[in-house]
Amino acid sequence: MSTIGTFTVRPLVPEKDAELLHRWVTHPKAAFWMMQDARLEDVEREYMRIAAHEHHHAYLGLHDGEPAFLMEKYDPRYVELVGLYEPEPGDVGMHFLVAPTDRPVHGFTRAVITAVMEELFADPAVRRVVVEPDVGNKAVHALNAAVGFEPEREIDKPEKRALLSFCTREQFEAARGAAA
Q: What pTM value is reported for the model?
């Protein structure tokens, strides 16, 4: 679908990818990732923890074969949202981070979130994607809305006030069709 190029994902390898991720998550544009002061060892340790977790997975997103974004998916019954909402069968949680660049491409971040959603919905068991961005992250709220997310309510997580939002497969398809 994307005229911007080809997007693929591969499992993140913390020992191999930590240096790259460290540059991304400590960049000023990644403030909402909450790792601004992280050391390289901190980033590697965090992604080793995720790699070992049964219900949380991290992927390196590639654009035309080059690292371009980070994608995480998680089971909200066990990670991130436990006790904060009533999960439904087929729910999957998602985080994504686009790599900082000195040469922004118009529409790139929207193409990335679309590729992330396509990847998540490629699993037929996934019925709904759940996100919980910081209430102040207006840019991500707009991107989420563009791919079909509907905000439900604000919730308090230990690290932030978040906007709990959902996107069903049908909402995503409708948003994708409207954008075409």
A: 0.92
Alpha-carbon torsion, ordered 157, 134, 33, 130, to 10 deg: 80
User: What crossing angle do the helices spanning 40-52 and 14-25 adopt, rounded to 10°?
Assistant: 120
Nearest alpha-carbon partner for 24 in 106, 101, 135, 93: 101
Task: Kindly provide the b/e burial profile for residues 21-34, where b requires at least 16 CB atoms within 10 angstroms of the residue's own CB.
Answer: bbebbbbeebebbe
How far apart CA 117 and CA 61 sit, in angstroms, is: 12
**Alpha helices of the chain — where are they, by DSSP H?**
14-25, 40-52, 108-121, 138-146, 169-179
Consecutive H or E run containing 166: strand 161-168
Interval 94-129: pLDDT, tens:
999 999 888 888 899 999 999 999 999 999 999 999
